[in-house]
Amino acid sequence: MKLHKSIFLLLFLFISRFCFAQKAIEIDENKITTPLYEVSFNKSSFDFYNQSNYGFILFYKLENDDDFLDCLRLSVENLEKYKTMDLMYYASLVEYVIREDFKIIESRKVENQGKTSYFLLVYEKPLGKKNLKIHHRIYFNNGFGFNFSLRTVTNKFDKLYSDSEEILNSFQLR
Asked: What total of structural domains would you count in the chain?
């Protein structure tokens, strides 16, 4: 009987954690809100995909003639156990990993006019007959690393960056 209670308790804890994790992101017509951040976007232009740990992907609703799903992606990493971690240290680790597979085009810290500073990486790599190009903003706040990026093929990068800049700039830490 004790074993059944233990299994039931473990199952309950697992399911409740899963349920609460799924409800952490709130979406209305033009904003994503979590306890950690908020982002504004035009819901009619994107398909939203929820990821774990407060992350998401916004897929552009475009006709894709290149078999690549253009998107904006935000991933969040809980780094609270690393007490000495800060933006520059975290960005250097991310950049180190990216260098393995990508050509770095730009790498610099951006002072963000009264908002939280971020580290910018722009990089690319061959993807079949095309090149994948990524505009990647790295934020760090209260033990969490935030990776917000535009991912597209090089020939569409300038247009999509122009379309996405307002969304990227709307990112606010809470």
From this structure: 1
How far apart CA 94 and CA 136 sit, in angstroms, is 10
CB proximity list for 162: less than 8 A, separation 6 or greater: none
Could you tell me which residues come within 8 angstroms of residue 66 by beta carbon, excluding any fewer than 6 positions away? 130, 153, 155, 156
CATH number at residue 137: 3.40.1000.10
Give CA–CA dist 120/51, Å, rounded.
22
Dump pLDDT digits (tens) for 9-39. Answer: 344 434 434 433 444 788 887 899 999 999 9
Dihedral pair phi/psi, residue 93, rounded to 5°: -65, -45
What is the maximal distance between C-alpha atoms in the chain?
64
Tokens of 154: 């090089």
**Structural domain harbouring 58:** 27-173
Q: Which amino acid is at 170?
A: S
Confirm whether 65 is domain-assigned: yes
pTM (2 d.p.): 0.83
